[in-house]
Amino acid sequence: MAAAPRAPDNDNCHHGFDEGAADELDCLRGVLAPRLLQQAEIRARELGIGADQVLIRLGMIDEAAYLRLLSRHTGMVIDDLSECDRSDVMLRDDQITYAAASGLVPLHRDGERIMVIAPRNYSARAICRAKRSINIDFRLTSDYALRRFLLQEAAAPLIEESTRGLGLHDPAMSAAPAFAAARPWRGRFKRGAAVFAIATLPPFLFPAIWGAMLAVWFLAFTALRLATCAFLRQRHAAAPVLDDQLPNYSVIVALYREASSVAPLVLALEALDYPREKLDIILVVEPDDLQTRAAIARLGTKPHLRMLVAPAVAPQTKPKALNWALPFARGSFTAVYDAEDRPEPGQLRAALKAFRAHGREVACAQASLCIDNETHSLLSRMFTVEYAGHFDVMLPGMTAMGLPLPLGGSSNHFRTAMLRTVGAWDAYNVTEDADLGFRLARFGYRSVAFPSTTFEEAPLHLDAWLRQRSRWMKGWLQTWCVHMCHPVRLWREAGGRAFLTLNIVAGGNVVTALAYPIMLYAVIDHMVFSRSERSIDWATALHVAAFAAGCISTVALGGLGMMRRRRLRDGWILGLTPLYWICLSTAAWRAVWQFIWKPYHWEKTEHGLATRRTTDPAPRLSARRSQRQPHR
């Protein structure tokens, strides 16, 4: 049952704990230069974090060395957890993820209760101030040791949570298979029978009514797209977030066979205008992807960057990798990017302003995606126009209309607590972003679009585009089936507007692509073979109207999007819309076949193959200069 919205415990507010001296630096007196300690304390006060975290995250001292000095100063023992096992942990399997997120592990060993802590934020300061009044046996450990212990001794519950967590908590909200892997034919038979019945029985029994329903569905989809053009409006921006009120921000990127993209990706993420001390970058790789792991290793030690290896269990999908990283995310907010992404430097701050401007019930803020290799081919140009219409017009319009958003798979910014509340991503849905957008609505949360851009790379060739688009269409089909499995419950939890939006957007994306050849045939048949007739029947007229409305909505969204991007000179590509729709229809029918035969197969899109448009480096340089750092 969906939960009612609750006040988030991760808002970007200032708790005022940093008042007073930075006691966590006392163990470093005589070890580091007084000037350096003074600058670290000033920086910590500016950012609202512990001074020890400033020094560690900027590489002035490594975590292990600081813990040794802190242990000597406080008398607390360092425990690397090497002698512990799962039976010592006083947590249930469903509580292991909280240990990873908080850095606290309660142990029961040799008849004693022990609390092991990996210091974060102000933990070291609190330990120093309370070292004489602590009665419980507190011990120190490093973040690396804690992570290693959890991955070794508590891997089973973490794997279960990352793969089937949503299905275990609420099976009706997950696309996970209901049958064991040893009986895949049973699921294929059921899906195939359902698709065959829907595709053959209504057209055979009620051909006119069925054709009219497809046309009306097409018209509803185009009507919503046109309506978003009329609802575009600028929202008053919130006041900028001060540095001492900035929250810790986690950035998760799932990588697979992306060795050539690692260095440019990390360079782009490090250019974000955000304090390095509060930035937590997690790169998730697959166990068989040795080249990408080697590319990350070549970057060297970076205190703000961690690599996690996803478990070698099915399904091998992006949402499973994101779920694997989420328990280890330290940030109050979490952003998701793809390997080829180049976000604008100010995007994290812009996302926080969007959260403040739209209210505390907002769980996700979606940035715009823009193609920056549009000149490669006609296909990439059409892709550019499509993205401009969707992210710069349709999603902002849906935000203004108060509708749930079909999120893009990248540049999603979440309140971490809310993301965990709704069950995170569905590991078995290959369009996990769209599914999550509607699931947030079912929990009473909102998603909004905000004006910041992430530059992406379009597929270079038709075969790569077809694989990517088929996966998207298959995911839309999965999303519609999951949420419409219990329509009454969906209406009760999400409301009528979300119910209609799901059917118009999720269903409409697939149905319109599948029905396009039928409507195109009806139009051509009337124009070429039935020109001698003075009148046409109502079904043909409906198909003609749907085809015309689809063209008008595509031109309107694409043209307005390109105008907002100041690339209207490339709008001529919209004249190829009817041909582009044939490609979309091919991808949709291919997606239906995959939905029956291999619904959870993730067809990867290759990146880093195109020559991309060079962006203005000035913002990145100014962003770097704005990060005030202690003098070395």
Describe the model.
The chain has 632 residues and is of the alpha/beta class. Helices cover 50% and strands 11% of the residues. It has an 8-stranded mixed sheet, with helices on both faces. Strands 1-4-3-2 form a 4-stranded mixed sheet. A hairpin with a 2-residue loop joins strand 2 and strand 3. The longest helix has 34 residues. The chain is elongated, with a radius of gyration of 26 Å. It starts with 33 loop residues before the first helix and ends in a 7-residue tail after the last helix. The N terminus and C terminus are likely disordered.
Strand content: 5-15%
Please state the average pLDDT score: 85
Structural class: alpha/beta
User: Largest sheet, described in full?
Assistant: 8 strands, mixed
Note poorly predicted spans: 1-16, 614-632
What is the straight-line distance between the termini?
Answer: 54 Å
Shape, per Cα inertia axes: elongated
How many β-strand stretches?
A: 12
Strands in their spatial order, largest beta sheet: 7-6-5-8-11-10-12-9
Summarize the structure.
The chain is of the alpha/beta class.
Topology:
Blueprint: H1 34-47, H2 51-57, H3 63-74, E1 77-78, H4 96-102, E2 104-109, E3 112-117, H5 123-129, E4 137-140, H6 143-153, H7 155-169, H8 184-205, H9 207-230, E5 249-254, H10 259-270, E6 279-285, H11 290-297, E7 305-309, H12 318-325, E8 333-337, E9 342-343, H13 347-358, E10 362-371, H14 378-400, E11 412-415, H15 416-421, H16 432-442, E12 446-456, H17 462-483, H18 487-494, H19 496-529, H20 538-564, H21 577-597, H22 618-625
Parallel strand pairs: 1-4, 3-4, 5-6, 5-8, 6-7, 10-12
Antiparallel strand pairs: 2-3, 8-11, 9-12, 10-11
Helix pairs in contact: 1-2, 7-12, 8-9, 8-21, 9-14, 9-19, 9-20, 10-11, 14-20, 16-17, 17-19, 17-21, 18-19, 19-20, 19-21
